[in-house]
Every structure is written in structure tokens, then in C-alpha cells.
Amino acid sequence: MKDMFCLYWTWTAIQSNENCTLWYKTEISSIGHKGPAGKTTYLHYAKSLDNRVNLNENITLKMNTLCDNRTSDVKTFTSSLTSGNPRTMVRNMTCIWDYKEYVNCTWRPGEDTPPNVNYILRYWIADGDSCPPRVNKQSTLFRDLLDGGELCQNYTSYSGNTFGCLFRVDPRMEFKKFLAVVMDRSQNIRPYIYFIPCINSIAKLKAPVIHLKRTPNNTVLVQWNVSDTSEYDLEYNILSNTDKQTEKVAASNKEFFNILPDVQFAIKVRVALAQRRICSASPDDPVKKFLWSEWSEIKTLPAVTGGRITLIVILLLVSLVIIVATILLLINMRRLLILICPRIPDPGKVISRDFPQWLQYGKPVYNEPKKEEVSLVSLLDTQPSSSQVEQDLKWKQ
């Protein structure tokens, strides 16, 4: 188990009188999966099995002999890593690594699992990529290998049935292989093998903590804090009255523009380990390349409606005053124009309008006063002066 399932096949060389070098062409496969083919000149074949081969199914080795351009018939050998009824294996097993803390594995009982099964989980962590040389290798039953590894102690149960286990791992286990086996102590069920070639593929970060604040020019600044790592991808979801979208960003903050104060702004974010932190895995690996964290708590900036309502009321009042003033001005414009610029009467029009009335009704040209006013005139006799008398005499002469 230290080398993550290094399986060794051995066979006996055929007796041949041909003067050529024998080659053995091999191919390992299981139900629904096929591993890479290879060629060897040794009388054994070693293959480090990974997730490209379903370790919970029978393993098949196909082999034929090559001699120059001639090929023998294909021989097929089938071997099972474990024994027991496949319907007793646990189902839907999955493990999640709460980044740099715990690994949480869960499963469901098999279809034909006997009652009161006492499940146990053992796990291994390794970073080897190849099998060691086969030197004095002794045959070992796979079941005997399961006694090694670390035994999980913190199991999760419900109604007497165990369906999960939680265990702490070394934070420095990044980029390593991870293998777990679920079985029972009494060996009544068939063991289930869970293998991940890179544990970063099941890493899950903590939900980030976000902060919001409004800045000038109708801008909202969103900041978040990720405590697990500085290398992550972020996804946000805006939950507002008018917008809902999802994007990926790679920063610790983001500005959202054109967010009016009277519009409510709500957002939540989640993070995942950056793609460059996910080590390479087989394209047939059913595990996702990354896991998103839980969504953060939704943060909301409420709409600021008071100032806008006041502005709208003021605009309506000003518009109403202007409309009323315009109507009054139009009504009194003629009178106002006469007061400002009085018109000069046209004599011709006045005579042509009034003269027929004078002739028809005998209207005098002038208005005779209703009361005659008499003013008293007094004559005063004065004594002529000497100069005046002399002058009168001159005129008489």
C-alpha cells in the first residue's frame, strides 16, 4: 500500500527455438476503463495502478508474445484485488479536503449490506510515481495489505448506521496521492477503494468574508478575505433588483460602477483553489478539477431613497410654479402690453365710428354744460397818473 497499488504480474517464458528476442506486449484494463499498453522483455510486468483503472472491479491483463514480425495469440488473465459480494460494497463514496485541515469522507451502505455492519476507514498518503524494483517480491493477499495505513477514529453515525468519517491530515500533504478503503472489521462486506491521484483535486476552501462600501461617482467597492491561501479563483453573484450575473475574477477586491444610491445592491462570493494549484490528473478522473467553497454571507447595501424623493418633490414644485406663472402671463399679456405700450387712437376710425351716431341721434359735437356758471366781474376806477395824462394829450393832438 505504500506505493499505491503496485500490481506485479509474472508468467513463464515459452519454449522457442526461434533465434530472436522475445517481447511481451501487455494491456491492463477493467470494466469500462482501459489503462495504457506497454512492452517489456522481462518475465514480469509491474504497473502502478491509478484512477484510470477501476480498482473495485476485476483487473484484466491481456498479453501476447512478439518475435520479430510475428505475434502470438493474446492470452487473458483476470484477477480480483478483493473478494466478496460486490453488492455489499459501500456506494457513492466521496471525500472532501477542508483545505489544510480535515478530510471528510461519506458513503452510503451497499445494496446487500448485512445489518449492524461495523465500518472502518483506513487511508494512505504517498507521493511516489512509480513502482519499486521487483526484488524478492513475495505474493501478498490484497486483504492483508489493508491492515496498514492510518485508521480513522471520528465516525459519523445516524440511527446506528455509520456513513462517514472525519480525520485531520498534515497541511503539507498538497500534491500527494490519497487513498482510502472502507470495509468492516468482521470482513462481511467487500472493501471499497477510493483513490485520488492528487489530493488538491478535492480541496475545498472556507467561505470568504466580504465587506461593502459606497464610493464617489456611484461606485460600490467589494472586498473579501480568504484565509486559506492567496492563490484562488473567485466567483461572484449579484443579487439585486435589476441584475444577476456570475463571473470569475482573480483579485482581493472589485469595483462595480453605475450603482445608483436609490438601487439596493446585494452580493455573495465563493472561492476555489486556483487551477495552477490543481496538479495534473487523468482525463478520465470522475472527480472535478476543483471544488467551490460555500457561498459567503449575503451582504446588502440598502437603497438610499430619502434624498431622491426630496429632489423629485422639489423638481415637481418648481415645474408647477413655472407652469402656473406661464398660464397667468399668457392670460394677462394683452392687458400688460396695453399698460406698457398704450395705443394711440386713430382719428379717422373715431370719426367714422362716431359721426353717424351724431347725425342719427342729433348728438351735439360738444357737451353743453348742465349748469351755467356765472362769474362776477368788478370794474375798478383808478386815477390816471401824470405820465399817462401827458400821453393822452399827445394822441389827441
From TrEMBL:
GO terms for cellular component: external side of plasma membrane. GO terms for molecular function: cytokine receptor activity. The keyword Ubl conjugation does not apply. Coiled coil: none annotated. The keyword Glycoprotein applies. Keywords: Glycoprotein, Membrane, Receptor, Signal, Transmembrane, Transmembrane helix. Residues 92-188 form the Type I cytokine receptor cytokine-binding domain. It is a single-pass type I membrane protein. It is found in: Membrane. The chain crosses the membrane at residues 309-331. InterPro entries: FN3_sf, Ig-like_fold, TypeI_recpt_CBD. This is Type I cytokine receptor cytokine-binding domain-containing protein.
